[in-house]
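Sequence only, no structure available. Ideas?
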Amino acid sequence: MKRTHLPLNALRVFEAAARHLSFTRAADELAVTPAAVGQQIRALEESLGVVLFRRLTRTLELTPEAEQALPALQTGFRAFEDSVRLMQAGQSSRVLSIAAPRALMAKWLAGRLAEYGRANPDLRFAISTHDDGEVDFTQANLDLAFHFGGEPTAEAIHGRTLGDERLLMVAAPGASADAPCIAHPLDPETICVESSLTVADAGLAIDAAAAGLGKTRVPALLAAADLAAGRIVALDGGEPAAGAWWLTAPTPQWRQAKVRALIAFLID
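Reply:
I predicted one. C-alpha cells follow.
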C-alpha cells in the first residue's frame, strides 16, 4: 500500500484496541465511543482484506496476522512520536531568527529586543539586516521579518503593522530651518532642492543630523529615541508616510508560541 494511502487513523485505533484487547478501553484512551472504535476496525479490516480480531464472549483475541504485525506498527508509531518531538523541539527552541532593515534595528528594535531578552534570559536572537523591502522567506530560515512599505503581497505571508507612520523633519538642537538636507532611501523625494549629503539609511541620516550635518526627513518611529534623548529636535509636525513598518512571517510561523509572545510584546 502506498504511503499516501495508509489509513493512519484506523491503524492508531487498531493499535490501541490490540494493546488493551478491548474496544471500550481503547475508546476511553482515544476519547471516542466504543461504537466508533468498532466502526474503524471494521473499515480497516475491509480495507486490508484481513480479519484482525476474533470477537469472543467477554474479550477480544488477535488473529495471528494481527499479532505478527502489531510490534512493527507500535515501532512505527513510536517513530512518529519521536519525529513529532523533534519538530516541536525545533519550533519551541529558544532562538528567534529575525530580519530587519539596519535603521530599524539600530534605532528601534535593538532596544526592545534587549528589554525582552532581560525578561526571557534563556532566549537568544539571530538577527540579520536587509535593505528595505519584503523579505523572501523561501530563501531564508526566519521566524519574523520587518520591512517598510505596503502590506505584504507574497503568497502565504501574513503581516501586522507597528501602527501608522509619520515623516518628521529633524535636525540637531539649534539648527536653522534652512540647514542643508541629508538624503536617504526612505525619503527619496526630499523637500530640499539639493542634498548636501546622501547616506545609506534613515538611521545614518538621523546620526548625521545629530552631528550637525544638516536636516533630514525620517520616520517618527526611528527618530523617537533620539528626540527623547535631545540629540535631535523636530522642525515640523510631520506628515503621513506613504508606507508603514510591517512585521511579517509565513502563516505557520504565527502559530509558534515564541513568535506570538514576541509579537504581543512589540505590538500589543
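The longest strand covers residues 95-101.
Hope that gets you unstuck.
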